[in-house]
Amino acid sequence: MRVCFNFIFLLLAAGLAGASSDSPNTIPAGTEAKTKSPESWTSKIDMQWGGRIRALGAISQYDDGTIYHAVQDDPYLDGTADFRLNNDTYFNPGTYFTVNYEAFLLAGDSTEAQNKLRPLLPDALPDDAIIVRSPVSDERRVLDMTHIISAGENYLLLHRLDRLSLTFERDWGLARIGRQAVTWGNGFLFNPMDLFNPFSPTQIDRDYKIGDDMIFTQFPVKQTGDLQLLYVPRRNPDTGDIEWDWSSLGGKAHFAYGTTEFDLMTASHYDDFVIGFGSIGYLGDTAWRFDTTYTFLSDLSEK
After folding, report:
1. What does DSSP say about strands 225-232 and 272-283: parallel, antiparallel, or unpaired?
2. Tens-place pLDDT, residues 77-128
3. From residue 14, how far is each of 49, 88, 208, 303 by CA, in Å?
């Protein structure tokens, strides 16, 4: 049984824009012309800020026979606090840089119980294993931008960068490189086409999707839809090297016919070949949507 209470405070987003002013130059007598003083490139930068502060508390009771009951049979009292600061810096309307910083504090009986279980289960719980409300790990990402600030018997404090990307928007389309979030498919709770940067199935708070290091491009196709391509390089946790067997490369075509939209996807995902088809539309006053994928598994004997 688990009871949770949640307090969310939203930071108001604010925009900071540079201003320019006209300055008359010295001109010959008898003329009335005015000229503008040249603007520096820094005066054209526009910065937009936003963020969130949130606190979450939980009371948990574990049944007899679980590993948690071996160290504590009373209700577990836990708390989580997180802070997020978002920034978009526009160098011009079509070029901008995105940075999202976040910090987490996990504290309570569950964290303490995990530390007590390690000596009892040394083989099942290595020193780097976290089984209680596991924080984000960058072990498989290209850049390790997560750092544990402090860890104690019953708490863990860490911070990280969840977004770090540069975006170019042009007439031909969009290109973005760096840590970002991408969603493919039309599903709500379960989204089979969202393979490359998915929400965790157990994640309840979906205000922010955890970012992944990737290259993403989008090209409009006349008036009917667009073509999207992405590449997600990942590291093999055993070797620490970026390997194809752990990475993803995918493409998705989106187009519309009448009131119905269609998605066609093909991808290489962890060395498996995946195809997908999805659609969303209307039948009278009823809206419908569906996604389906099929995976051609690679020969495991070759790995």
Report:
1. unpaired
2. 999 999 999 999 999 999 999 999 999 999 988 888 877 777 776 665 555 4
3. 5, 11, 19, 51
- Cβ-in-10-Å burial (0-12, 13-18, 19+) of 24 comes to exposed
In the chain, DSSP assigns E strands to: 2-17, 46-60, 76-92, 95-108, 146-151, 155-170, 173-180, 212-221, 225-232, 248-257, 260-269, 272-283, 286-296
Structure tokens at 261: 């939209």
Report the alpha-carbon distance of residue 153 to residue 112 in Å, rounded.
5
- Whether 169 shows a pLDDT value over 80: the answer reads yes
Q: Which residues pair with 170 in a beta bridge?
A: 173
Listing DSSP states for 26-73 in one string gives P--TT-----PPPPPGGGG-EEEEEEEEEEEEEEE-PPTTSSGGGT--
Tokens of 168: 């170019």
Of 45, 79, 77, 41, nearest to 61 by C-alpha is 77
Q: Where are the alpha helices (DSSP H) in the chain?
A: 109-120
Express each pLDDT in 240-285 by its tens digit: 999 999 999 999 999 998 889 999 999 999 999 999 999 999 888 8
